[in-house]
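We modelled the chain as a single entity of 452 amino acids. Its sequence is:
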Amino acid sequence: MTVNLNKDPISTSFYQYLWPALAGMLTKSLFIMGDGLIIGIGIGVEGLGALALIMPVFSIFTALAMMIGIGGAAKMSIDIGKGKINSSQVWFSQSTLLIVVTSIITAALAIIWLDDLLTLIGASGIIAQLARDYLLIMLPFFTLYSGTWVLSCFVRNDSNPRLATYAMSSGAIVNLLFDYLFIMEMGMGIKGAAYGTITAQLVMSLILLSHFARVRGSLKLSLKGIGFSKARDILAMGVPSFCVEMASALTIILFNYILLTQFEESYIIAYGLNTNIGVFALFVMVAVGQACQPILSFNHGAKRQPRIDETIKLGLKVAIISGSLFLIIIWISAPFIASLYLGNLTQLISLAVTALTYYFFAVPLMGFNIVVANLFQAIEKPQRATVLALSRGFIFVVLGMLLLPMLFPSNGIWVSILFAEFLTAIMALIMLLNYFRDSRPDRAECISNFGT
């Protein structure tokens, strides 16, 4: 069943987008954690350390894909809301060309300077070698990875969120199955993990392409409108999403550098586990934002302010409640989760539990910040979204990493994410209240009813 953004109640549209996005993100995050578990068992704790070094590279290509995919798809939804149906193909064609060109250039540069990049962050020994082996295989296929991500954005906004979810879920399952085959059964080590990821991306792209074969929406596989005339608008609209992921990549790189140079190797292993588990909560918050975005963009284009208000109110409630549940679950089960990955390494388990607990204290605030940033991006106020993205993802994190270890030598490094999300939440709340105040004269009533 397709989504009717023009006539369906907001709650109906929201959950039609949320459940597929949530199912896909949960499936993907579960299999990422399973992937880490297989790597930890099949390769050893050094494999988890290598994952921490690999993650920033994925974040960079995801940042490019999010900037172009979300930017182009949001502009398409806004035009549809304005009744400009014929422009959809132009946004799709130009976004596709843009991601192919940028990802090829980025991958080529990364291959050329790979050793220098690993040295720059202080990586050495077996962990650095494992990361290098993985990336040498994976980098040439990051164009496929990024292109699949962009394709899923347009398929979702072309009234087919379920197919985007099926593709993501299927890719996650294939990734896990082939990781087990290549690593555990065939003994291919970290290279097997790379081949498993590539296989999964191929499966995802084929599933997404079926959208066009079945003619489910308005988009076609066509060269119509190809070029770069819309590139500036696409990039400007997608800058907040780019900043979110790039800030994440820079933060992980900085974490890796500090942990490798100022702490023991056990800290980088604990951090690798933390990012592997934390992605579960992050993906849920991203799914809530994805559910809001097409509804917000469409109604912004159609100038239907009450439906925007209702969407943001619902999205914030779902994000905050979900984040609180994650915190409770981790508070109770962190020792068990850490022992699954790390076996009977008692000291390392204790360190990982501390890192996980502090991270998940930040998750409810993370949900609030992501949804508010998504609002401003969807209604063509990318500057505000960018400020929030950079604040929560980099500026305040760096400030926390510099200041908090001086106050709390052992655990200060783990508190920096909570510190960043808290300060950003204050900024986001001020921006949101100002938006409520400015968007319509009767906004005071909306604010007073916000908690109902």
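As a brief sanity check on the tokenised model: The chain has a mean pLDDT of 83. The chain has 16 helices and no strands.
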